[in-house]
Amino acid sequence: MKLERLISMIYMLLNHEILSASALAEKYNVSQRTIYRDIEAICAAGIPVVSYQGVNGGYGIMEEYKMDKSLLGSHDVNSIVTLLRSMSTIFEDEKAEETIHKLQSVYQAGNPSMSLDIGSWRPYNETLREIKNAIAKQLVLQFEYVSVKGERIKRSVEPIHLDYKYDSWYLYAFCRVRKGYREFKLPRILSLVVTGEHFQLRQHDPKPDNPYDYRRQHTVKDENVFDIRLRFSPVCMALR
Q1: Beta carbons within 10 angstroms of residue 148's beta carbon
Q2: Is the CB of residue 144 less than 8 Å from the CB of residue 191?
Q3: SS3 assignment, position 118
Q4: Which residues lie below 8 Å from residue 133, measured CB to CB, with a gap of 6+?
């Protein structure tokens, strides 16, 4: 608890000009004597806390030590907050919420001019959270995967990371069944089970940036790969 309080106090001091010992003691529900000891600990860590005397006195951090707020403008902060808010909604990420709060407290940005929804309404949000947790803890996943032919194939994989592209989520993992790295589209993953088996990260080749490159790398001859164009009549739009 002391470490968390010290870290929080540092952010408070960075975000305010001067804070009195009584205000800090009230916020953290500790005595002023404890605040004095905390300030000494922060100074010992190399953070230059300055004491100001007088009626409006208290503690602050040297201006030279603070980050120049001109490094990020309101547009930059709003863009970061928009992305973090969407991610925190999907993954229920408290750390992302804390980062949003810190950014908004340091940079007085206005209301974001846009919002970003990258899947917070979809029914497989719980699957996303389970996979994210398995990636962090390096736990093997087991599930049934529906192929493009509609076949259900049991898979055992070592998850590496999640990708959001082409309006869908994908899991990049080492497939123990196919003995190689594969991408799995989340809507095709069924009966997901997070096992208690830990795995060690393998040395793997970086995956291509797009499916076209992937297809080219796995085609024997380049002449077998070609572009096609499809034309649709306006009637198709009405049936969408």
Answers
A1: 7
A2: yes
A3: coil
A4: 139, 194
The Cα 197–Cα 201 span in angstroms is: 13
10 Å CB burial of residue 183 (0-12, 13-18, 19+) is middle
Distance CA 125, CA 52 (A): 50
* SS3 assignment, position 139: strand
pTM: 0.52
Residues 6+ apart with CB under 8 A from 17: 60
pLDDT (tens, 9 = 90+) of the chain, 240 residues, equals 577 788 788 878 877 778 898 989 998 889 999 999 999 988 888 888 888 888 788 998 887 665 555 445 566 666 676 667 666 666 666 666 666 666 665 555 556 566 666 655 566 678 888 998 999 999 999 999 998 888 899 999 999 998 888 778 899 999 999 999 999 999 899 999 999 999 998 876 655 555 444 444 444 445 566 778 888 777 665 554
Query: What's the CA gap between 61 and 3, in Å, rounded?
Result: 19
CA pair distance 181, 168, nearest whole angstrom: 19
